[in-house]
Specification:
Order of helices and strands of chain B: HHEEHHHHHHHHHHHHHHHHEH
Structural class of chain A: mainly alpha
Shape of chain A: extended
Strand content of chain B: under 5%
Radius of gyration of chain B: 33 Å
Largest sheet of chain B: 2 strands, antiparallel
Number of helices of chain A: 4
Largest interface: A-B, 63 and 66 residues
Structural class of chain B: mainly alpha
Number of strands of chain A: 1
Helix content of chain B: over 70%
Strand order of the largest sheet of chain B: 1-2
Oligomer: heterodimer
Number of domains of chain A: 2
Chain lengths: 106, 573
């Protein structure tokens, strides 16, 4: 039963952290911006600290690294955004790209 | 007395009567149709038509037995899904006045239900094509020039898929002598060609890259409600037929894993939120195909339950973006922002959908997707696991943060709007309640799955690792956006795998229209010139020959006369 309560608290905290991030991430800030950022920081800290006390089920060697999921999530997101930025070099075209291609030949 | 009532036929036949009703009666009738289909499926669960599984209802036509009603746990859960979802969507689209739009949407659902309950390959094919035609009509209801063009490209893809599927079915029936649709066999030799053709027909509908381009191309061109319908049925029927025919087909593991990764990059680039959700949809179907490829009871359960939950949370996101589009007239990141005060309910529902698709604990994605990822871990598929986790972080970035953030937060553009009408809010509410219910109480979904479930999603390691993954992915976004390093959204289109077809296809048509026709007319003109010249020449020649001949003849006569005269003179001497 204790496990259920811990999981429920962590889950709710996680969701709260996610929502306050959306409110406070960018200028113009919410008027409670700094408070929200503080809550967000506490949630991140809780996620890391609670991870130190968990008995992990290890299926792959890399899962035994400290806070592996956190590092992987951070790295994956940065990689994704920068890879997409790289793709911007040749994938995006003007909105009427295909129409122009057709129109030019008419 | 009919032994069994086909829920798909209720819809397909029922929509024909829609134009007979007016006003409130029409709305009531539109609600009655999916409700009847839903009650029909509930009756099947209750054993009203016989114990599950049973396969009874066949239709004889020209000496061939079409099995229209094969009912077991796998077809039933999709039957439940495909009647519960349209009921929600009919509520969402009650305000739509155009009959033809409702009719093509519900006929499309009927086709999907037909595929789900089809027990033989020809019946499956017929409903497959009904679905293709009806969904094209749904795209065309966008009623713009872009929608018309995208609809043509869409139907071309589906005609191609349909032909490959039909070829596979005919060859399969020819070689095995049976048209029953069960798990297909596959191997290395040419003998498995029919199975592979059927497989290709299926994965075109599942939008497996690089055969996916029709999806983000056509779906966002439909109406506010049409796009939501489209996002549900074609891809999920493909998941159903693959789960039925190809469970444990190993290439699907890799196909599914790559399918989760490919679209997340596009989703970051894309500015149109409905296109972002379309790429997100491809990513989600990738998780399902991966589960089907692994093929164990847990993995197939994971795929099926993820399909079920996805319809509601992905649908919920489409509903929210649709509501924003309905109110503001746009769904582009660059033209939206700061709507949380103006549309608070839509914003709240969007958070539920976004948290569910990102697999936050307590939301439905967490209890379904984790079955697939855990099974990849139990099977020690390191590479697949790494890709799936990357895709999980990716889906959180684009569907979890990008969609709510750029719509409801970020810069406030001061758009003067309010929440959508009550029917749309109600539909979003239903989807949100289902997403949370499944997340908090997984057994509510697990009991309907095709195999018995002994999977426990809520363990402390699992909850903590998932929270770490998601929260620190959000932290990366936070760092990049608050330092200004996050690349700004651009109002552009992004080239995808249909680029060669659209460019070279366009070039080919241009080639046929311009140079080929020019050449033909040149040839034509040239030949005509030669013909007329030769006639002229012949005529001229004719004259010359005639004159020449006459002169010759005259000379001959003169000569003859002279000769005869000379002989005469010579003889008379």
């Amino acid at each position: 039963m204790d496990d259920v309560i811990i999981m429920a608290i962590l889950s709710v905290l996680g969701f709260v952290g996610y929502v306050v991030l959306c409110f406070a991430a960018k200028e113009p800030r919410h008027r409670l911006g700094n408070v929200l950022i503080a809550i967000y920081g506490l949630v991140l800290l809780t996620a890391i600290v609670s991870g130190l006390f968990v008995n992990w089920h290890i299926y792959f060697w890399w899962e035994s690294l400290v806070a592996f999921s956190a590092i992987y999530g951070f790295a994956a997101c940065v990689f994704l955004i920068y890879a997409a930025k790289g793709l911007r070099l040749w994938l995006p075209k003007e909105m009427d790209y295909y129409e122009k291609k057709e129109g030019a030949r008419k | 007395m009919i032994g069994w009532l086909h829920p798909g036929l209720i819809l397909i036949v029922g929509v024909l009567l829609v134009p007979l009703f007016r006003g409130k009666w029409k709305q009531a009738y539109l609600l009655v149709l999916p409700t009847m289909a839903l009650i029909d499926v509930i009756f099947m669960y209750m054993g009203f038509f016989g114990d599950i599984p049973y396969s009874t209802w066949t239709l004889s036509f020209l000496g061939y037995e079409f099995v229209l009603g094969r009912v077991d746990k796998l077809s039933l859960i999709f039957g439940l899904l495909f009647t519960l979802a349209p009921l929600t969507l009919v509520i969402y689209s009650l305000h739509v006045k155009r009959d033809s739009e409702h009719m093509s949407e519900l006929a499309y659902v009927g086709g999907a239900l037909g595929v789900v309950f089809a027990g033989d390959l020809f019946a499956l094919y017929i409903f497959w094509e009904i679905m293709a035609v009806a969904s094209t009509l749904v795209v065309w209801h966008g009623r713009t020039d872009k929608a018309r063009r995208a609809g043509f490209r869409y139907i071309l893809w589906h005609i191609l898929g349909g032909i490959i599927l039909l070829a596979g079915i005919v060859m399969y029936v020819q070689s095995t002598g049976s048209s029953a649709f069960n798990a297909l066999s596959w191997g290395a030799g040419i003998a498995s060609l029919p199975s592979y053709l059927i497989f290709v027909g299926f994965i075109i509908n599942a939008a497996v890259p690089p055969l996916h381009a029709w999806l983000p191309d056509a779906y966002p061109e439909s109406t506010v409600t049409g796009t939501v319908y489209l996002s549900i049925f074609t891809t999920k029927t493909a998941v159903y037929v693959l789960a039925r025919g190809f469970a444990g087909f190993e290439p699907l593991i890799l196909i599914g894993a790559l399918m989760t990764a490919y679209p997340i990059f596009y989703a970051v680039l894309e500015n149109d939120l409905r296109k972002v959700l379309c790429y997100s949809l491809i990513n989600q179907v990738g998780f399902m195909l991966c589960g089907i490829g692994i093929g164990t009871a847990l993995a197939v359960n994971g795929a099926v339950s993820h399909a079920f939950a996805n319809v509601f949370f992905e649908g919920l996101l489409f509903l929210c973006v649709g509501s924003v589009l309905f109110r503001t007239g746009t769904c582009k990141c660059t033209e939206l922002g700061g709507l949380y005060k103006a549309m608070p309910l839509t914003c709240a529902f969007c958070f539920v959908g976004a948290a569910s698709i990102s697999a936050f604990p307590l939301f439905s994605g967490f209890v379904t997707k984790s079955m697939i990822i855990s099974e990849a871990a139990y099977g020690h598929m390191g590479f697949v696991w790494v890709i799936l986790m990357l895709a999980s972080a990716g889906v959180f970035h684009h569907a979890g943060i990008k969609v709510p953030f750029f719509t409801f937060f970020g810069k406030d553009l001061g758009l003067k709007v309010r929440d959508p009408p009550i029917n749309m809010i109600l539909a979003m509410g239903i989807a949100a309640v289902l997403s949370i219910t499944i997340g908090v109480y997984p057994h509510s979904l697990y009991q309907f799955l095709p195999y018995p479930v002994d999977f426990v999603p809520y363990t402390i390691p699992h909850v903590v690792s998932q929270l770490q993954l998601l929260l620190f992915a959000s932290f990366a976004f936070f760092v990049l956006i608050s330092t200004g390093l996050y690349p700004p959204e651009q109002n552009k289109i992004n080239l995808d795998s249909d680029w060669p077809f659209r460019i070279f296809g366009g070039k080919f048509i241009w080639f046929c229209k311009q140079p080929l026709m020019d050449f033909a007319s040149m040839l034509d003109g040239g030949l005509r010139k030669i013909a007329s010249k030769s006639t002229l020449l012949a005529r001229e020649m004719e004259e010359r020959v005639f004159i020449g001949f006459s002169v010759l003849l005259a000379l001959l006569f003169i000569a003859l006369y002279l000769v005869v005269g000379w002989i005469h003179v010579w003889l008379t001497h």
